[in-house]
């Protein structure tokens, strides 16, 4: 038993011979696997032999069992195959029976259909004959002039009477008038009476809210000529009490929503009825409302007229979008567009003319109101010809060829005016987008843009620049008012706003049209025109002489001339100098720092660096030439070095490397004013002065009061 268990246990896992023998040796006494036992090889061999014999017996027993199971499996396989064959034969027999039954059913069905056709062929003429007989009977009653049948006298059978009279009416149409005029008249009269009764019944049912009765009557009236009148009555009664609020568009939407849910339960063609209701609302209610709102202001108040037109058109298109949810037929988009066009066509034809006229008058009024608030009368300032020549000559020569305009520091640029103009134009662009025909949209948008250019860029910004240029005094003016930089700053800010509106509101309207290139070119021309006038004031191109920078340098010259004294650099008492730098230096540095700040606030981008570089170079040249005018004692030279050091601090505010380098060199040159004669050559060969022309070095050494001494001249030579 233990052997079998061991064998079965090993069969559950992958068999490893070494492990199996190890376990067998471990269980055998004297096998040597247990600690403390003596190894007994004979006993272990005996145990192995016995175990092998037992395994052989077990193998034989298992082999016999396997052979028995194989024989049993083969027997059952044969029996199963035989059974499958029998089932296949049964299935074939059942399939044959099914085919026979299917053929028999098909044969019977064919016979039944043939019989049905024969019965229908007999019954249809019979029914037609019966129906014709009844119609002849009713026709005879009309011919005799007395209606005796219950179907005509009983009001509850109005549906059957309507069916009969409708058929009689069709028959009467084919009869000759001369022989049957009287009966045709009677039938037509009865036809009309029944039609009126049915419409009245439909109206009463609608008022009572009886949807089922309305559906029955509408189905009967469908074959009558008065069916359209039934629809008209339904539409009219639907609108009773529907438009009681001030918002006719919201009322219309609610009404159509309610009718859309109901109309399918009443009429067989609900989309046609709903479309007719919408058409009636547009052509009667909305058209009347729009006319009342617009005609009131059309000639008297263009602003209110345009606002009302935009509002009404927007609300109408919004209503149309809501109605698109309903089933109105195949091409509801075209249907609704035609309805909107029929209402607004007379107003949209000349919309852009009204828009341009209003924008022109409104913009002119905004500008005039601003200039009136400044007590300023706009004057015509030429920009070409003789005027331009004088201006250019005055820039080059600093000769006042004509009187400058005194602006009292006023820039004549207003953020409020600009915002108002841009707001008016923005609203115009919005109206243009909504009210213009798609084919005319780019052209109309361009016209509005042209108005903005005319009044904002030309009449306001350009006029301010022209006035600013005319107000810049010559560079030798003692009281130079450099307000032109304020003009530049405000013009720059305004043009950013102008450019933003161009991108945000105009570009979407013209982006896919040929007008895009035209607008971009017009904008480019405006920019170039303004830049030319800004260049005339702030010298965007460095090589040209400037008005504003000339004024700055001229003002600094006046400060130096008024404040700098010859005794500053050659004091009478060399041992009693108490100041760190001269009064002229303090005032010039203060003035320069203010102008640098003003330039930074007035410009942006590369313009700032360009103007500051030119200003810094001129500032350096002015100080260099100014220092050349004086003689320096030892203490005066020290004071000059202190002044230049202060100028250099001021130059750092420029944040321009070239300017700082120039003042560093100037500071090194000033050291020549105080250095001992024996050290002159060493200082001149220093890093900052080695590359300078000897004439420049010599010119500074000559400014020393001790220059004429033989010792100094000998050392420098």
TrEMBL record:
Superkingdom per UniProt: Eukaryota
Pfam families with a match to the protein in the record: Sec10_HB, Sec10_N
Coiled-coil ranges (or none): 52-90
Transport found in the keyword field: yes
UniProt-listed GO biological process terms: exocytosis; Golgi to plasma membrane transport
Ranges where the Exocyst complex component Sec10 N-terminal domain occurs: 41-149
Entry GO terms, CC: exocyst
All copies of domain Exocyst complex component Sec10-like alpha-helical bundle, residue ranges: 160-716
Keywords, comma-separated and alphabetical: Coiled coil, Exocytosis, Transport
Family designation: Belongs to the SEC10 family.
Name listed for the protein in its UniProt record: Exocyst complex component 5
Species, as recorded: Smithornis capensis
Taxonomic placement: Eukaryota, Metazoa, Chordata, Craniata, Vertebrata
